[in-house]
Design brief:
With 634 residues, the chain is of the alpha/beta class. It contains 21 helices and nine strands. α5 packs across α15.
């Protein structure tokens, strides 16, 4: 098994290098006789160039997520506490050197020390000293670079605050990062059986990726019989989800984070065996091989191969036109012209299919509008949860502590909720654009027999592969190629709004500490302050400005404008490829014998130059077949 694992790791390195080389050759190939690479090709190229893919560690609060990751590193890096510890997302990158950085939603980065991690990422510190102030910027995540001896360099672990949290923003943060996961490690402990909230979260996770494994921590805190009983009970509860996972069944694997920590720190093989981590590691690596190694490589191969097929088909048509009789060339041109007319009729400005695409985008924007209006209503969960928290205060000291961070908590919660609403809309529109681009790629494609046989099942179209295989692989990178900058459709409005909230709420922080210390008066003052802050936020988002539009309306118009621009860009590129093929065929219809002979020579030279790309894809298909057999043997 170890030999197969090493062989598979080598094959993963080989195919990724081969696909990167293929992409570099495609992008550097300059010839007007072949179709221009479409957006999907550029997206696939961006994906295969990525250095890290996210494995999200999630589960209910206080199940030992951060302790488990610390144990993997053999170092107490992430904040842990008997109370709710993690308040932000930590992105842990496997690195030979240590480095710690705050990463903001606007792309700015601020290096911090290891000692600062608790200040910026611990809920305990936030409750004691107040939420950190970022001067109007929104913290996206905290990046931690640190050696992780057990994992490949291509994997980044995402430590999330958790679900079922007392702090409403924590669960939303976790769900937001789940949507970007290549794989998921779900943490449970032996204390109680899995609850409904956890099952609902697992259902959400399985809609994103089938690569999900279950780890039971804290095994050294319980009797072996208790652990065995709880594993059996939880596997029974989760059994209905088994077939939806990549493993085909539910298997919960226990691990002692304490022993694993000591084993990695001391490099002690006996402690490592006692921790039961080897079984967990085997499953984790298999999951990583399935996604980062095999799954992504197979998807990228499929996109490159489809483009290769279009190129080979186009050159084959030119060869036919250069050798066939004028009548056959005319028939070929007429078929191409008919395809061109059908393409414009279906996908042009007034086409039925174009209308469907536009309507779909409008529906997603309207859904965003509905979610935003619900967010800014007085009965939204952010306000009602804070009101409930105020009602449940039992001492003046608790009230005073809340007064120190009420404004910043409210600003942070609204900022994150707004960002999540916009990103959900963006993701939905991305998927529409992906399907649109993929449909047009299928329209471009003629005789596919001249390409490399697809590794995927014949019945599975490119649309299915991109939209249902691992949709978040091809979202951010896809939109980056369409809009020219990541998050372009929301970045400008989001930055302005978050900055506005920071200014509005910053003036209120701390003034309540001078008020009457009686608890009843504290509660009244806190609720009044909460109401004032809410009014300021509502006015900032929902009240019309001097130009007669609210910030929500401006954001909607920006999203629609950028989306329609992207659709037009995609349409024009595919139409340009068809027009180019038509022009080349028409030139051959009018060419004399000498010109046709010259064209035959020219096409033969292009095919010879293109040959290394075609051969790369033949090798890639062989590697995928070998990798598939190896991963099945693990």
């Amino acid at each position: 098994m170890n030999a197969n694992k090493k062989e598979l790791e080598l094959q993963i390195q080989n195919i990724r290098a081969l696909l990167r080389d293929t992409y570099n050759r495609i992008t550097s190939f300059q010839n007007s006789q072949i179709p221009t690479p479409d957006m999907s090709v550029k997206t696939a190229g961006a994906i295969i160039q990525q250095e890290q893919y996210d494995v999200v560690v999630c589960g209910e609060v206080k199940k030992g997520k951060s302790s488990f990751i610390n144990a993997l590193m053999g170092d107490e890096v992430l904040p842990t506490n008997t109370q709710v510890a993690t308040s932000q997302v930590f992105r842990i990158i496997n690195s030979d050197t240590e480095e710690y950085t705050l990463v903001f939603t606007d792309g700015q980065r601020q290096q911090i020390s290891r000692q600062d991690l608790s200040r910026y990422g611990s809920q305990v510190d936030a409750d004691l000293y107040g939420e950190p102030i970022f001067r109007g910027r929104q913290l996206d995540y905290i990046e931690v670079k640190h050696p992780i001896p057990s994992l490949p360099k291509s994997v980044a672990l995402i430590d999330t605050p958790g679900i079922g949290a007392l702090y409403a923003a924590h669960e939303q943060i976790t769900r937001n990062y789940l949507s970007k996961a290549a794989a998921v490690i779900f943490i449970i402990d032996p204390k109680n059986p899995i609850v409904v909230k956890e099952r609902e979260f697992i259902e959400s996770a399985l809609k994103v990726t089938k690569q999900i494994m279950f780890v039971m921590t804290k095994m050294d805190n319980y009797d072996e019989n208790v652990i065995a009983t709880m594993i059996s009970r939880n596997e029974e509860i989760l059994a209905p989800y088994g077939k939806q996972t990549a493993f085909g069944r539910i298997s919960i694997q226990p691990v002692s984070s304490t022993l694993l920590f000591d084993a990695n720190k001391k490099k002690d093989e006996i402690l490592m065996e006692m921790s039961c981590f080897e079984e967990v590691k085997d499953t984790l690596l298999k999951m990583i091989y399935n996604t980062v190694g095999f799954g992504i490589s197979a998807e990228v191969f499929s996109v490159f191969n489809l483009y290769n097929t279009r190129v080979m088909q186009s050159l084959s048509e030119l060869q036919t036109a250069a050798t066939a009789t004028p009548t056959l060339v005319r028939e070929l041109a007429e078929k191409k012209q008919q395809k061109q007319q059908e393409f414009i009729q279906d996908w042009g400005t007034n086409g039925a299919k174009m209308k469907d695409i536009s309507d779909s985008i409008s529906k997603h924007i309207q859904a965003m509008d509905n979610n935003a209006r619900a967010l800014f209503s007085q009965m939204n969960p952010i306000i009602t949860n804070l009101q409930r928290e105020i009602d449940n205060l039992s001492s003046s000291s608790q009230a005073e502590a809340l007064s120190r961070n009420l404004s910043s908590r409210l600003a942070d919660a609204y900022g994150k909720a707004w960002k999540d609403i916009m990103e959900e809309c963006e993701k939905n529109i991305e998927n529409v654009l992906i399907r649109y681009d993929a449909h047009l790629s299928d329209v471009d494609l003629g005789d596919s027999s001249v390409g490399v046989d697809s590794y995927q099942a014949k019945s599975r179209t490119l649309v299915d592969r991109l939209s249902t295989g691992r949709n978040s692989y091809f979202t951010g990178a896809f939109v980056a190629t369409v809009f020219a900058a990541p998050l372009a459709i929301v970045a400008a409005p989001l930055t302005a709004i978050i900055a506005g909230i920071g200014v509005l709420l910053g003036i209120g922080a701390g003034y309540l500490t001078q008020q009457d210390s009686e608890l009843k008066q504290w509660k009244q003052n806190l609720k009044e302050h909460l109401s004032k802050c809410y009014s300021q936020i509502y006015d900032n988002f929902m009240v019309r400005t001097e130009n007669g539009e609210t910030k929500l309306q401006v954001a909607k118009k920006e999203i629609m404008s950028q989306s329609m621009k992207a659709i037009r860009n995609i349409y024009e590129q595919h139409k340009s490829n068809i027009d180019k093929q038509m022009l080349l065929l028409e030139q051959q219809m009018q060419a004399d014998a000498q010109a046709k002979k010259q064209k035959q020579t020219e096409v033969a030279q292009i095919l010879q130059t293109w040959k290394p790309i075609h051969e790369n894809l033949v090798k890639a298909k062989t590697l995928l077949e070998q990798m598939n057999q190896l991963r099945k043997s693990l």
